[in-house]
Amino acid sequence: MAVSKPNLNLTPLSAWLPSPRPIVIAGPCSAETEEQVMATAHGIAQQGVASVYRAGVWKPRTRPNAFEGVGSPALPWLRRVKAETGLLTTVEVANAQHAYEALKHGVDILWIGARTTVNPFSVQEIADALKGVDVPVLVKNPVNPELQLWLGALERLNQAGISKLAAVHRGFHSFQKTNYRNAPKWELAIELKTLLPELPIFCDPSHICGRTSTIPAVAQKALDLDLQGLMIETHVNPTEAWSDAAQQLTPDQLGELIRSLVVRSADATPAAHARIDQLRTLIDELDDELVTLLTRRMGVVGQIGETKRAHNVTILQVARWEEIVQKALTQAQAGGLSADFMRGVLDLIHGEAIRIQTSVMNRPHTHAEVSAQA
Ligand code: PEP
Ligand code: MN
Q1: Cα–Cα distance measured from residue 217 to residue 219, given in angstroms and rounded to the nearest whole number
Q2: Nearest ligand, CA of residue 115?
Q3: Exposed site from 117, 230, 263, 301, fewest CB < 10 Å?
Q4: Residue 9, SS3?
Q5: For the residues 235-259, what does the mean pLDDT come to?
């Protein structure tokens, strides 16, 4: 279903979070103790790579009786973080009470978690609570891959007057087993960016990956897609963390990661522009040829269908198709295309060919055909 472009009235990111790309939000999954919060904050500040300190104070846990966050008593610790390190602070809010508490304690930025974005009632409650407050809000994607819900949450906040908005891409729950804790489904972030180019998007590689080893690749990919920043869980002692222990980096690892990222620019030099334009022209020509070739191929498929119909031959001829696939795979691999990709393309072409031939076969017989067969 096509998604209609929402009309958001946004304050540019540079007006509320001025910082060179990537803008880094780092800090522990959960605020645990004052010592842990302060040691992590000083470690992060020392690296000089982050501008915002995150910490979960109210933790949405899947099952009860797990650590559910320290709650409001952790908020003064964040005030101390800001005073001692200069980092801005952000916490997750899931209801109006959280929002009041966070604002009362001077938290700079609020974020809405994935489990809250799925619920329009909760989002509306938070939006209503924030009416008349000019606080920035980050909106994580909903747990399920539904762009409309993500947009809906942004719209609800915007309609309540929140203009300092950003999205956070943290991956999506998937029933299929993947390498990720939450499948990135980059296409949703890309679609959001295409619909709302002026909306800043952060990526949260920690919750996408669920472990530390794959964070660098996901963080780099986010930058290559021109996302504005990263939210990365960082803990002074990850193995001892009270939540999400497997995915948190130490402050040193965070520094190393951010310094290793290659920041490419969307604004190319004139020479690079000219080259990209040439290559795009080439791509346009090739796409043109592809469509022409596919049209011709399906035309021939139709003719084969007619011939099979006239001679009562079955549509599906497995041996013939296997032969086509093998030949194409060999040729594709020689040219450096992946077998998976080629097989996907061939499956689509085959599906369409069967559809065309089936409709030829099922066409009602004309008088001429009936008398010819009699
Ligand atoms: C978090 O950032 O700690 C968190 C709970 O994230 P999410 O809402 O993305 O699961
Ligand atoms: Mn977490």
Answers
A1: 5
A2: 1
A3: 263
A4: coil
A5: 98
